[in-house]
Design goal:
Blueprint lengths: L1 E7 L5 H10 L3 E4 L3 H11 L8 E5 L5 H16 L4 E7 L2 H11 L11 H11 L1 H6 L2 E4 L5 H13 L8 E8 L10 E4 L20 H8 L2 H23 L4 E8 L5 H13 L6 E6 L11
Parallel strand pairs: 1-3, 1-4, 2-3, 4-5, 6-8, 6-9, 7-8
Helix pairs in contact: 4-5, 9-10
């Protein structure tokens, strides 16, 4: 039997994940009273049970209740239950935005500010996050990207490290991304903006890609960047890092940075046991004059 506990920050996407797991054949239960968890596990673990894959959703209701939950989970593990913990994470800004859009109150701050509830919850969940088998940061994940990560773990059963690598293109005119871990400036390459038939295109267009990658410096830069990232990622994983944002910037974030971000994603895709996503921050911003 495969038994997965889905937990994490409120607003991190637990309900969405449970629906996705259900679609892959998991028997999903959400918000089961803690007093019934052990009995539930006992029933589904019986030899004649037809249930082979179970996902149980647990979230914070109060400090005490989650302490009880972690105690029960530890006890189940000690009793030989093959328990896996999937922890859903998101940054504070994203969680607050999701709460405000849904007009929900935070379970740990029903009469106060959402910000206070988010920070309190993060402290409560610190230990279970540290002991989780899988950690997925949903801050910038699209639904299809989240599904791809779940399929990788629970359908394809591929080896998985709790590191999500985001490759981001951006324009320096709009500022360096606040969440960037590694920033690379590619303004040393010739700018397609000054080529009349390329000016209105972006690094998602083949004509711009051919122009930018046609310079030896672009290929050499990519080779050196791959060497560096290939060295850094295993060490980040070893140190327990969950999220890595590699930001590639040019002047306006339309041509050179987009091309090289696409190329880096192409080279890194399906080469590691980490999650990988591509994000072009400024490519659709029509209000920025760039050159």
């Amino acid at each position: 039997m495969r038994f997965v506990v889905v937990t994490g920050m409120s607003g991190g996407g637990k309900s969405t994940v449970l629906k996705m797991l259900e679609d892959t054949g998991f028997y999903c239960v959400d918000n089961l009273p803690l007093s019934l968890v052990e009995k539930f596990v006992e029933l589904i673990s019986m030899p004649n049970s037809e249930v082979s894959k179970v996902a149980l959703g647990l979230d914070v209701r109060s400090d005490q209740s989650f302490e009880d939950a972690t105690r029960i989970l530890s006890q189940l593990k000690n009793n030989g239950i093959p328990l896996e913990i999937l922890f859903l994470e998101a940054d504070e800004k994203t969680l607050i935005k999701r709460y405000k859009e849904s007009r929900r109150v935070h379970p740990l701050s029903p009469d106060g500010r959402v910000e206070d509830g988010v920070r309190k919850e993060r402290r409560v969940l610190e230990n279970v996050r540290r002991s989780a088998d899988y950690v997925i940061d949903t801050s910038h994940l699209l639904t299809r990207e989240l599904k791809a990560e779940l399929d990788r773990i629970f359908v394809e059963n591929r080896e998985y490290n709790n590191l999500m690598v985001t490759i981001m293109s951006f324009g320096f005119k709009l500022g360096i991304p606040a969440d960037a871990d590694l920033v690379f400036d590619v303004r040393f390459l010739p700018n397609p903006f000054y080529i009349e038939h390329l000016k209105e295109k972006t690094g998602n267009d083949k004509e711009v890609q051919d122009y930018v990658m046609g310079f030896d410096e672009a290929s050499e830069f990519m080779d050196k960047l791959m060497d560096m990232i290939g060295f850094l990622i295993p060490n980040y994983i070893k140190e327990g890092k969950y999220s890595l944002v590699v930001a590639i910037g040019c002047t306006g974030g339309k041509h050179r940075s987009v091309t090289l971000a696409n190329e880096l994603y192409r080279r890194m895709k399906d080469t590691g046991t980490y999650g990988l996503k591509l994000y072009h921050r400024d490519v659709e911003n029509r209000n920025v004059f760039f050159q």
